[in-house]
Specification:
Blueprint (H helix, E strand, L loop, with lengths): L1 H11 L3 E3 L6 E3 H63 L5 E4 L4 E6 L6 E7 L6 E10 L2 E10 L6 H16 L2
Antiparallel strand pairs: 1-2, 3-4, 4-5, 5-6, 6-7
Helix pairs in contact: 1-2, 2-3
Length: 174
């Protein structure tokens, strides 16, 4: 910033600028202020352009991740969660229902709708990722946790099963 101010002062020494539209002449401190305003505006425009480019890149990454996650969710995750729910029901351990809201799957307790295990695609960060969320209540306490499982294209059925088994431990230990 100091270097910028120094360069501006040096560049305006002994100079006069005539404004074409009004014919007014600008010199000295007024010229310095005008140059600083122009530099500030240029930096602002560069920041806006950079933010637009980053947003476009993020949207493209998120679209690609959604395209990858959708089929994996439908063909691997949802059937696996249904299998886990059926196994728990058959063993009379815990009664869970499976819900498939758009772009996610939720294994929800029949006893308390606030107790669930959920897998979804999180596109709010810099990189899209599949997240496992667990919520369970113990009396008046609510225990909630989130775990990043990985990138949508990098997950396997074993990764999902490992998360589900870890998450179910909290429900079984009651």
């Amino acid at each position: 910033r100091d270097l910028e101010a120094f360069l501006i002062k040096r560049s305006i020494e002994g100079r006069t600028v005539r404004v074409a539209s009004s014919g007014a002449e600008i010199t000295g401190p007024d010229l310095e202020k005008a140059l600083q305003r122009m530099i500030t505006q240029q930096k602002l425009l560069q920041t806006v352009e950079r933010a637009k480019a980053q947003a476009a890149e993020r949207r493209a990454r998120n679209d690609e991740a959604t395209t990858r996650f959708g089929p994996f969710l439908d063909t691997v995750v949802v059937p696996l969660v249904r299998q886990v729910a059926q196994a728990l029901r058959a063993e009379s351990h815990l009664l869970f229902n499976v819900f498939t809201p758009s772009g996610s799957v939720r294994l929800m307790s029949e006893r308390n709708a606030e107790d669930f295990i959920e897998l979804f695609l999180d596109t709010t960060g810099t990189e899209p990722r599949v997240v496992g969320r667990t919520r369970r209540s113990r009396g008046s306490r609510v225990l909630e946790s989130e775990e990043a499982l990985g990138a949508p294209g990098a997950l396997s059925e074993e990764d999902v099963l490992a998360f589900l088994l870890r998450a179910l431990e909290g429900f079984v230990e009651r």
